[in-house]
Amino acid sequence: MLFIKEVMKLASSSYTKEDQGYTMSTVMQEAARCLLCEDAPCSQACPAHTNPAKFIRSVRFRNVKGAAETIRENNALGAICARVCPTERYCESACTRAKIDGPIDIAGIQRYVTDMERKENMQILHAGKPNGLSVAIIGSGPAGLQAATTLLQKGYAVDIYEKAPKAGGYLTYGIPEYRLPETIVDYEVQRIVNLGAKIHYNQAIGKDLSIDELKQGHDAVIVAVGLAKVKMLPMFEHNICKESAISFLARAKESRGELSDLPENVLVIGGGDVAMDVVTTLKRLGVNHVTDVVYEEFKEFKASKKELAGAQAQGVTIVDGYVPTSVRQNKVTFKARNIDSEMTIKADKIILAVGQQADTADLKIDLQHNEVPFRAAKYRTPDPKVFATGDIVAGDQTVVYTVQKGKEVAEEIDRVLGGSSND
């Protein structure tokens, strides 16, 4: 019951507040709630070490540029994380104020600061003095973009190879516009290009270029391809009523909210953040009946509480604790995990949001016998010139955690190649 109460509170308050954003006066009021903890548990809980304690202090003193500098020095995708990070799982869960009247709205303050940074065209990050070394990065998702930024600051030349026409990976082709506007992703990418990154679009490594060719032209190669391949439940393999969440979200974003092939009744299977993106997008596109059946019970839900709250606020029906056992065309039968119960749902369309996996076959690299997520020591692969990072490496798959992986792989490459951080 406690979980449900927390979700309903989010649905009626902070979800709407974040959509509206802060003004200078309201962000000052929120920052003034900070207790200025000496040990800063919020900063310790941020995977990317964005240091909210420090940038909130700057906001309290009306030093917005100082706040932006703190964010950017630690997180190249600060404007993106401000919108999509599950802060209730990280910094806000550690906020001391949460024990009094609710945590500081860290994401909202960070969003205000990065919005002002963009509005005022603040130029904060600068490339380091060229050191004569170069790194190729395969993939322009959050890990690849952060790794590029950290390396550029250390003086490396960076080439990013992206198989799609635009950079950003899932940021561009997966996260819905209402959560992450395309203009914000474009802004973040352009900042990194301005720093010196060269992005080569429509380049599929393993087809258009080989890793061996990248190794010949660079001192190191980073594989940051993400999890772009759909996981499919075998029973749905040849079902004509089904579509993957990745395919649906990409189509919805490309169509800019004008999909014309959606029926009145859609069944979604899955309970992570991607599933929440799917069900909320369906409702925003005008689908009347959206039902989401989830393997986990609410007490073990994987999705962000904020995204779950948003889905429920849109009127999505969510059934927790059921697993599909059979499907016949558009009828799916589910069995309860923990009670003796069974149900069958008939829908005009079925969307599967049951996870993604890496597709590294064309790369012809050994990720410990293709074990994904790759459990790498210091992001190293068996090839001394090839490193791996991002979602294909073991660890949390949120954007903010992936940013940290991008920083860490860059630091390891700098250490190995004898750059500025070599000890």
Explained architecture:
This protein is an alpha/beta fold and 423 residues long. It folds into three domains: 20-119, Fumarate Reductase Iron-sulfur Protein, Chain B, domain 2; 134-228 and 358-417, FAD/NAD(P)-binding domain (3-Layer(bba) Sandwich); 230-355, FAD/NAD(P)-binding domain (3-Layer(bba) Sandwich). It has helices spanning 2-12, 14-20, 24-32, 41-44, 52-60, 64-74, 78-84, 91-94, 106-119, 142-153, 170-173, 182-195, 211-217, 245-255, 273-284, 305-313, 399-417; strands at residues 134-138, 157-161, 198-200, 220-223, 229-230, 242-244, 265-269, 289-294, 317-320, 322-328, 331-336, 342-346, 349-352, 356-357, 386-388. Helix 10 links the parallel strand 1 (134-138) and strand 2 (157-161). The protein is globular. 45% of the residues are buried. Involved in pyrimidine base degradation. Catalyzes physiologically the reduction of uracil to 5,6-dihydrouracil (DHU) by using NADH as a specific cosubstrate. It also catalyzes the reverse reaction and the reduction of thymine to 5,6-dihydrothymine (DHT). Its EC number is 1.3.1.1. Residues 15-121 form the Dihydroprymidine dehydrogenase domain.
